[in-house]
Every structure is written in C-alpha cells, then in structure tokens.
Amino acid sequence: MASQEPVLSVEHLAIKAGDTSLVKNISFQIQPGEIFTLVGESGSGKSLTSLAIMRLLPEALDITGGQIVLNDESLFLLPEVKMQRVRGQQVAMIFQEPMTSLNPVMKVGDQVAEALKVHLKMNRQAARKKVISLFEEVGIPDPEARYDWYPHQLSGGQKQRVMIAMALACEPDLLIADEPTTALDVTIQAQVLELLKRLRDERGLAILFITHDMGVVNEMADRVAVMKQGELVEQADKAHFFAKPTHPYTQKLLADAVPKLTYKPISEARSLLRISDLKVHFPIKKGIFQRTVGYVKAVDGVNLAINRGETLALVGESGSGKSTIGQAILRLVDATFGEVEFHTESEIVDLLPLNERHMKPFRKRVQVIFQDPFSALNPRMQIRDIIREGMNSLKVGPKTPAEQDARIDELLEQVGLLPEHKFRYPHEFSGGQRQRIGIARALAVEPELIICDEPTSALDVSVRAQVLELLNRLQQQYHMSYLFITHDLSIIPAIAHQVAVMKEGRIVEQGPVEDIMLNPQHDYTRKLLDSAPELIKQAFNRPPEAPAL
Fold first, then answer.
1. What's the gap between Cα 91 and its chain centre?
2. What's the whole-model pTM score?
3. Three-state secondary-structure class, residue 42
4. Strands (E) located in 386-533
5. Alpha-carbon distance 358 to 351, whole Å?
6. In whole angstroms, what is the distance from residue 509 CA to residue 524 CA?
7. Structural domains counted in the chain
8. 277 and 343, same structural domain?
C-alpha cells in the first residue's frame, strides 16, 4: 500500500434492472497489495459490483451512472476487444463454486493453459510448464500428475486452488474473489485464506474479497465495506471496523457472526435412536466385467445415540461420512452391516432389515432438511402442494383439501412465513425462505426426528441465525430430536446438546457440547477448532453464558 495511486477506483456506480435500482451510487478504492473486503447478505449487490468491474453483467441490467477506473483506464470506455485483454491480464476472478466454474470434460491443466495461450500466446509446451509451476505455487500436490486430472478427481479445496491458479496465470494486478470459501470445510478454508494472503505478499496483488462471513473478514481484510440493499452503509479499516462499528446493520452482522456459547442442559436420557457398529462400504469395480476389487469405507463401525428432545451435532470435513450416516438412517443407501434401532413408545425396531412397506410408517417419524434449499424443492409445484405431498403420501393430518390448507397456513406461520405464500413457487423466495419451506415440509408429517444435513451452510450469517433460532423454538414446542450434520463449528453451541466428531468414516470423539468445544481430547478435534477463524476461536475461549430458563 506504498503507492497512493489506486489499482481500482469505483466511482458513483449505479445499476438498474428496468426501473429497479440494484446498486446505488457506490464508491470505493483498492490500493496495490491491499485486501479490500465487501460484506453483505445475498441480494445486497456485492456480486453485481464485481460483475460490473469485469463488464460481465447480464444484458437485462443497465449501468446508469458512475465509472470504474483500473490502472488509470476507464473500463466503461473500452471496446469489448480491448476489455477481453483486460480480463485475465489485469483483473481476474475466482468464483464461489469451483465445480460449476470448471469444464467437467476437460483436464484441469489444459483449462489453465488455455488462458496462457489466449492472453500470452504461449505454445503448448511453455504453457504446460507454467501451469505446473502455478499448481506448485498454489499448493496442489504432485502438480505434474494433477495436470492431467479432471475436475471430478479433485477435492473441493483442490478445485478451488485450480481456480486460483487460473486467475493468477497472467499475473493480474487485481484479483476478485467472490465468496471463494463458502462451500469449503473449516480446515480447507483456512488453507485457501492463507494461500491468498501469501500470494498477496509475494506478488503485491490487490484483492477484492467478497463474503458474508465476518470470521473470514477478520482473518483477511485490510479495509472493509458493508453493503445493504445496493448501498454502501459503512467503510473502515479492519481494526476500527471491529472495534467501533457505527451502522446498526453492521452491528447486527457482527452480533450474528460471533457464536453465543449458551450450552444446552441435557434434560433427559430417553433414547430415540441408537446406531450400533454401522458400516457402509461401497464396492470399487474395475475391468470389463466390473469385478469388485476393493471397498470405499464411507462409514466404518459407527456407534451413536440420539435422545428424545435433544440435538446431536455430527461434525467433520467433507468426505468423512457424515451425510452417509444420515442417508443410512433414512434407508437411502444400503448399510453393509450394523443396527439402526428406533425406539417407539412400545417397542424397539431395527430399521435396516425392513422392506419398504414396513419402513413406510417410520418415514413420517424421521424426516430430513437438505443442505441446498434451491434444489430440494420442486420448481414446478406451488408451496402448498410441496407441503401437502408428504401429508397425503404418508397419510398424516387432515384429509380434506380445505383442512389441509388450514394446516399449511399454520405451518407457514410457525416457520415465519405468510399464509398467502402457499400460492407461490420456490423461485419466488430467497434462500432463507426456501429453507423455512423445507422445515415446514418436514414438520407437516409430525416427525420425532429430523436429520438436518448442513441446512445453514448456504445461508448468510443473519439468515443462518434466524433458521437456528427457528429450529430451537420448534424443538422446544414439539420436543423433537435433531441429527444436525455440519462442518461449521461456530453454530454448534447454538443448536446442539451433544457432539460427535467424525473422521474418515469413524467417530473419533463424542460427548456434551461444552466438553468438546472447551476441552477437546482428540488431535483431529483440536485441529478443527484451531482451523476456525480467529473471531470464532476467541468466542470459544470465553466462558459460556448461563442457559436461558
């Protein structure tokens, strides 16, 4: 930040869709070597601002005011031919979801090499050598071999590293990182953030880092700007921003971001579900005859217990087997071995040997809330039909359409929506509202256990806080149990009574939340906690508040 000439100046930028203002008169500058974080909820205009810088806005949107200056050159005045050279060479972008940003049928090395051939006119051999060097720089193991891999062969963290290598290929002055760690585990997130900071230091790179995660902001930022409904409501350097936030919206974002350590007392020990020595092994088949040559041990001898009215948080990195356990309970995958015992008022039933006819009564007792609220709802059905479907198929609740509509109205109000919302389609709702609809659908069949599979990972911090509060309230109201699957350590004290930590198909540690969070015994648990952003770790080290009575 020695130079006084900014790499990027955004001056009075305004964007409209028809008569609707989406970005309103925003201005900021980014200096060389500076990490400038743009913070706000989904729909606040963060990503639109980044797309305007790249001149990649959809045709339906119009820039109605302002200018963007990159290295003393106004981008809005450039013809498209020149702008194509600016993209990649002077400014590059890392997108949120690496899997959808990479071509699935093209080797990852060739995808990075393509940028070098187009912008720097390198030949094939020189481009390959440069890509391998970039892969090494961003920490991809065995870079020569990985050059010839396809995206599906890489982990989420490795795919994101490929995207970073692609963005850095032509040595740009400005890197735009649009929510680059949202879908990553806490350990992988820590590695990617450390990588970006190292590259900034080594290359003098200016970074526009877009996020809604205040822990990440605290970890990365030199300066912070907060967006709300298309406007910049606050700008400050990091120290001042966290010490003395001035705008009420900023204060709310910070309050929602820091976990509230109010551990829940364990009220009773009546068992609802008990898992014993559960194993789910997927066969590895090879050759023309597809012979089984080995097994992937997704779940390998797991024992868990969930009590009535309590929440068990199942924590671990992607690929550890958390979601497979949820699927095995729901009988969506076949378990290789073990028992999943459901405790009714009169008997104990092992769910695994049941055929579909005998399993059906337990479908209403065990429901699920999925991670992605966008793909979990049928886009062609109105909300009332989505909720009604489970009631009809499992024969739960009122039978006549009028009585069912009244019940749907009641469910929508319970999850914080309006009765008239039942006539809408899923695309008419925000991500948080869709997740509430998913919760209403699960509640419609009056379950005793809900499997929550990463239900808040795609949500902003304020929306996440609302969904957690809603789940807690519904648990108290209906005395339900939750299996809460997550990789986000910060939300565990707000939702769980017990925690089980999972690694490579096995449970390595379990116990009450307070014991696990404040006094972890296993090295892997300590590694997960150490990888959390500093803002979250500081909260973990505070004494917990007394639980609300």
1. 26
2. 0.80
3. coil
4. 449-453, 481-486, 498-503, 506-512
5. 9
6. 9
7. 3
8. yes
